[in-house]
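Is this the right way to post structure tokens for a design question? Let me know if I should format differently. Anyway, here goes:
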């Protein structure tokens, strides 16, 4: 009969603090780039799916709406572009140490090292999650715009204003991400 015994080996993680400090800050920075880019693309795809399905359905009743309602798809695609911009900014901040070794030298700036990794992770994650919200909100507004425009052409501009405000969420997200990542620089030499 086996019983559950906590791991007593020297290779066991003693908690989340040890897990988070055992992972390389370069890994956190790279995950920040990946989440920022990946989630922004998911937000854009989700918004295009919401807008596109309504646009195609409403265009059956009123074929005139097809071309002018493509602006909704373009607004959704902008959220993916915000993620690409943030990924470029974060990738340019990741610098390798001057000397390569298994262990970092004595006197290395560990707090700065981890601050940069965690900061880039949080910047990428905040941009990605903001762009998911922006993509969905632009998609819902674009869907409503297509359906309303099929019923009454005078509603197009009125609902497009709401869609522009929904797209501004992505701009706010990238501004926050840039502010978060401004202080994140990897130390490349011994302090």
């Amino acid at each position: 009969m086996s019983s559950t015994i906590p791991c007593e080996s020297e290779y066991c993680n003693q908690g989340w603090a040890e897990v988070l400090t055992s992972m390389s800050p370069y890994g956190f920075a790279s995950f920040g780039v990946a989440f920022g880019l990946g989630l922004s693309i998911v937000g854009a795809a989700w918004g295009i799916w919401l807008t596109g399905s309504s646009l195609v359905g409403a265009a059956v009743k009123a074929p005139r709406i097809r071309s002018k309602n493509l602006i909704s798809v373009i607004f959704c695609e902008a959220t993916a572009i915000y993620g690409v911009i943030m990924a470029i900014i974060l990738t340019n901040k990741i610098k390798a140490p001057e000397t390569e070794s298994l262990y970092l030298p004595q006197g290395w700036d560990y707090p700065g090292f981890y601050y940069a990794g965690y900061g880039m992770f949080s910047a990428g994650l905040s941009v990605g999650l903001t762009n998911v919200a922006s993509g969905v909100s632009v998609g819902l507004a674009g869907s409503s715009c297509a359906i309303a425009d099929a019923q009454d052409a005078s509603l197009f501009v009125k609902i497009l204003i709401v869609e522009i405000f929904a797209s501004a969420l992505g701009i706010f997200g990238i501004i926050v991400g840039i502010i978060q990542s401004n202080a994140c620089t990897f130390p490349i030499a011994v302090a």
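Format looks fine. Someone answered above. Worth noting: The chain is about 75% helix and 0% strand. The mean pLDDT is 87.
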